[in-house]
Write a structure and sequence with these properties.
The chain has three helices and nine strands; from the N terminus they run ββββαβααββββ. By secondary structure, it is mainly beta. The longest helix is centred in the middle third of the chain and has 9 residues.
Length: 163
């Protein structure tokens, strides 16, 4: 079998369809689509998200030390696409799309309540990896729609229509 060289950028698949939300020191909420993310520890539970330093949310997370990972599904496609294209530096994305939120219980950042899973995280470390800074956050609390959680508390991702 003959193989050809493929592009290096974003060669690992699947990439999770997530939206990271945050709140600045003045109480303004923002969110952005993040392509580089994943679990990085189970004891204690930690998640890493990669954000380009020029992004508006980058400085908010650096300053506040927290964020929420919101898992997007097919039902969230319009919000996901919009948040992936527009900067909060230029407009209030939450007002524009009438995004429904709830306050985090453990971190000062909004949960995007239309997303079926919201993961509250506190930043414990970060590392520059080239184009992105990987923020490593301890998982403080996981909120999930009841229909997607089994009797043992496991999230039933197979029952979601993922993007």
């Amino acid at each position: 079998m003959k193989k050809t060289e493929a592009l290096k950028k974003s060669c690992m698949k699947p990439m999770p369809s997530i939206i990271v939300s945050c709140r600045d020191k003045d109480g303004k909420d923002n969110a952005l689509v993040v392509g580089y993310a994943g679990n990085c520890s189970y004891a204690p539970p930690m998640i890493m998200v990669g954000i380009v330093p020029s992004r508006y949310s980058y400085h908010i997370i650096k300053e506040t030390g927290c964020f929420v990972v919101n898992i997007a599904t097919a039902e969230n496609k319009e919000m996901y696409d919009y948040l992936g294209k527009v900067s909060g530096r230029n407009e209030d994305k939450f007002a524009k799309l009438n995004i429904k939120t709830a306050d985090g219980e453990c971190v000062n950042a909004p949960l995007l309540t239309d997303c079926p899973v919201n993961i509250e995280c506190k930043v414990v470390d970060s590392i520059l990896t080239g184009s992105h800074e990987m923020f490593i956050g301890t998982v403080e609390k996981v909120h999930a729609d009841k229909q997607f959680v089994d009797e043992n508390g496991n999230i039933l991702y197979k029952n979601m229509k993922m993007l």
